[in-house]
Amino acid sequence: MSSENRVTINGEAHPLPDDPRVSLLDMLRHNLGLTGTKKGCDHGQCGACTVMVNGVRINSCLTLAVMHDGDEVTTIEGLGTAEEPSALQQAFVDHDAYQCGYCTPGQICSATAMLEEIANGWPSDASENLDGTMKPSAEEIRERMSGNICRCGAYANILAAITEVASGEPA
Amino acid sequence: MSAHLKQDAPVTDNRLDDMKQGVLGTATSRVEGLLKVTGTAPYAAEYPIDGCAEGVLVTSTIAKGEVTAIDEDSVLSMPGVIAVIDHPSLTARPAQGTAGEAPAQPARKVGYFGQPVAVVVAESFEQARDAAKQLKVTYRADDDVAFDPEAVDAEAQDGATSQGDLAHAMKEASASVDVTYRTEGHSSAAMEPHAAIAQWDGDTLTVHASLQMLNYNISELADSLGLDEGKVRLIARYVGGGFGSKLGISEETVAASVAAMRLDRPVRVVMSRQQVLQCIMRRSETRQRFRLAAGADGKLTGFGHEARVSNLPGESFAEPVLQSSHFLYAGENRELSMEVARIHRMTAGSVRAPGEAVGMPALECAMDMLAEELALDPVELRLRNIPEKHPASGLPFSSHKLAECLQQGAEAFGWDSGPRTPRHTREGEWWIGTGMASAARVHNVGEAKARVTLKADGTALVETDMTDIGTGTYTILAQLVGEMLGLPIDDVLVELGDTRHPRGPGSGGSWGAASIGSAAYLACKALRETLAERAGMTETDLALRDGGVVGGASLEELLNGETLVEEGHYEPGDVTDDYTAAGYGAFFARVRVNRFTGETRMEHMLGAFGFGRVLNTRTARSQCIGGMTWSIGAALTEAMLFDPVDGHLANCDLAEYHVPVNRDVPDLDVLFVEERDGVASPIQAKGIGELGMCGGAGAIANAIYNACGARVLDFPMTPDRVLAAMPD
Amino acid sequence: MRPFDYQRADSRDHAGQLTAGEHAQAIAGGTNLLDLMKLQVETPQTLVDINRLGHREIEDRDDGGMWIGALATNTETAVHPRVRSDYPVLARAILAGATQQLRNRATTGGNLCQRTRCYYFTNIDQPCNKREPGSGCGAIEGIAKLHAVLGASSQCIATYPGDMAVAMSALDAQVEIAGADGGTRTVPVRDFHRLPGDTPWKDNVLEPGDLITGVTLPPPVKGRQLYRKVRERSSYAFALCSVAAIVAMDGDTIARADLAFGGLAHKPWHDPEVGQVLIGQKPGADLFNRAADVLLRDARGYGENDFKIPLARRTLAAVLAEATGVEL
Of B150, B353, B453, B712, which has the highest C-beta tally within 10 A? Predict the structure, then answer.
């Protein structure tokens, strides 16, 4: 099999599914057993399935696996482990930035990419100015994390966890 | 051995305060936290099971009637399709919380649009999903079908209160309010869709499911299938949110089980998000009339709360909107009554804080209007009307921290007790205002068993079929057992969510922590008796810390190679009949309302709560901010929209059913008011999962009025409604 | 989702051939199409992946305008330095829509073709003339909160749900379309979307085999550029009403007023007469009201969406006040 028909997930190459209807999300969860990426709505309306494709966060439910040959996908399993959690993963634990935990991997994948977007100077709907340096203010983080629904209502703690990592200081 | 307590009297010895480990009541991180943040905590649909087939539910396209034919041939030739299951055991509705018996069967009899009627099983999810849409189902639709709760006669509910002469009190009052509020239906919309994987070995059924109350669910499932409970095992180690929607078994659990038994292979059924919204419990819409009468001294002389809610025919549940109205405020002339309209929307049942979630906000808006009539600070109005005892039954309160919550909350928030004229503050396009409300939620407990094993190595194991739906059960049990046995929490392993373990109370009605905590407490107390005996002292003198007697032998030494096992068994007793027990609190909110568009944005919200012993300040705070976030949804965005023609739920997804997003939630502050309530439970704790939304939406509504002068009488207060009520 | 044949187009001509068939559809970001395919609202038999065709460039044009490739993602457009500085209304509109995750996949062409969020269109168990011609309109007698108050027909009262195209309409951008015959034509964004009339299933002027290759933005103009979106949540919600405005002052009178509205109609609503009311006049409440009178002269509500008529008036006033610096 050529590399053209493979997608790399957390550094490991996998063949694409035969059925083109398989979403990237269902490929992860059903075909590969990478169930850290969650299905909350299957229609891009909740963010629980957020992964990074070539470094950019997307809803893995709204893309077909077959469209991703040659792409590099990073899921929650690729960000850290219980033994070696990422800074955001640890901050989510420290700030109780979850309750049931179902939206959590999507929140963390999203936040990981989001901090990169701020560093790259991408503006958001909350940005007063479209140009210049972007700051991880509370309002910016809230807007930029609004694509990840948490029904338990942990948003205030999610903000605190991300703020701690963004600022490098305990929030 | 077992340690049993049926609580017939208050337990006021506050023994947990005597313990030495110092882990209970602290801000301890969740013990399962690293599993959740790394995506390795397995939820119901995520167990790798060889040969698992995929089932997808087929849902009805009529609201009332009957399936007359299912054309299996329309899909059986499709690639991968294994079977169409249309079995009399399939259930038509979810079971109500604590039902303990099969919900309505068969699924062929249709009671609401979107009801599951069959399940299509295929080799892959993609095949099953398509086939379920392609399946041809023929119906006989009934004509006599009602969708509008206002257009039908309603049945009066038992439990009405009629005391004195409210009409006369209204007439004589110095100030009075007679107002009707309406609230729209809510969906729990837990993030994990309802899911089950069923395995049948020819004798025993094992089901991984997303459920809150395995102790009842096992009976519900066994009864649905005609199986002996001993032949059913339910597992729910991680549950992606419940909020009432997973109290009883739903259609997917039975469908997966029936399919697995008939096909003799494992079957997974996961509801789509649209199906979750269409067939899982809704919170009923409500219409609530308030009549409040007060003297010039601001004391209530009359209190009326009459409500209409709805449900399907045959359902006993009625959104208990009067629940806290019965005892929250004084007023000797009282009329409280409720009626239920029978309509064909999906089953109405428990959604986080059933009753108070919508009853309290409406009441607290009416109280705000009364305060305005009296020209009295709304905080002061509440303080003047806290009754000494239950105003109808005369029962004493177990413990009552409303006044403290109001006072401490007002101070922390910086509440201005001066005159409250709307539109006092403007910033550009925005009016800014504040509002407050009381919080109240009845306290419940349930029978609970937990087994605590003290192993020879001096570590402990806790086992119960209790669930942790995000509430923190794993952690508070580790803390409580660690506190009692003098162990760091790393030395306490908690295993939940498996019916092979002793029966817990289930997670629901905010009763989990107090009930299962009490069972674990009783088991630990019995273990302490044995340890004390071995240490040559009384249990009350036994001080345990860090794996041993303080200044004495280690647990390992005391155990001497033995393993000790105790099962704690807690039962609610007569004490529940002797007292009125509830959690109390106060909400304070600051909002901005756009002068042009009527959009409301939250600025700040504070909640002060008294709910007995706080077991873990971090997870308890999370429960509170979760409830306050739901308050924001109830106040501003959440509404189920039903089609008037065929009764289907129009906004059946998360794009159009608007739960709050991150940007909707402002800085939230939570204040705990110290309390020990010995009536509530032997560990002096009450529930906290629901109190945070019992009135909060009222504080926001009152802040909208204070900001812009729009007295909106319908929840949620979307821009269209705010604009319609906004004075020029 | 129905089974389909997945094809990857390797050239524009190839794509044109593949998508010319009756049951073929092109997929780019897929954020709207896959959503609808899962619901079986869209049931293509051939799905043509056009993501490797290029057309992703965002470039300056000789006349000072810009070219936004059809496959540029919404994010790429919104964060482009020149879009931010010279076409802020476009950057703002894109950022007001959806979420970062969706904007990272959604493309210019796909977003122009975004289909309505009407509850009846997205539910195959309901009547909808747009989805199934002749089946009726469930919204007119049903839940019409999202629906149109301008330009609707007895067949369909759906709205176009997007934000980006509303800003492009205000900017008078041009859509470049490659036809199946190999030719290329240009259609103003203002004419790209259609009103429902008696053919509500046709959202826009695209014919089978047509592919959008990109959008041309005219040279930037002086003036304030604003995008205001009114929605039920603070984020991640479709517009109840939105206004894209490019307003320039000459002394104390309005010199330019290019306005387009979202959430009100089957297309981004642009009515040149609204701007004509404003131009040459001193800004103020009365003037803004007169502009709203013109905008809403034929407005009609369907019960639940009646509120959009006063809301559009008030939102227009708020935007014009902000743009002209007038205190209302």
Answer: B353
